[in-house]
Amino acid sequence: MVPPRAHAAAFAPFHGAEVAPGAAVESEAARIDAIRRTAESGYHPVGTCKMGHDPLAVVDASLRVHGVDGLWVVDASIMPTIVRGTTNVPTLMIAEKAAALINEGS
User: Residues 98, 63: contact at Cβ < 8 Å?
Assistant: First the structure.
């Protein structure tokens, strides 16, 4: 395995002890285990209210909740996967589109 660039000699004066996952975690299996035990969503959950018309879909293309009149889902949960950047702007776009759809009576 190629060592990370942070281990280059130029950074040596700035190195301290490894904090996580720890020096004892050396094998790939141990690294995978450490990731599984400590990974978190990072406060950007998406994809929990699928859009579509199949049995698993929560909302339709107009963001209306299937089977519930007058209820829309207007947040990042309708995104099928997380975007590469912050979810703020796409969520604002979803809200703008929802506002237009709701005002049109969709």
Answer: yes
Q: How many CB atoms lie within 10 A of CB 64?
A: 19
Task: Report the chain's C-alpha Rg in angstroms.
Answer: 22
Active site residue ranges: 44
Segment 23-60, tens digit of pLDDT: 888 899 999 999 999 887 667 778 889 898 899 999 99
Q: What are phi and psi of 60, to 5 degrees?
A: -90, -175
For residues 106 and 24, what is the distance between their CA atoms, to the nearest angstrom?
Answer: 58
Residue 30's φ and ψ, nearest 5 degrees, are -70, -40
Residue written as token pair 């141990």 = 30
What per-residue string of b and e applies to 11-26 under the rule 16 or more CB within 10 Å gives b? eeeeeeeeeeeeeebe
Cα gap 84→24, rounded to integer Å = 32
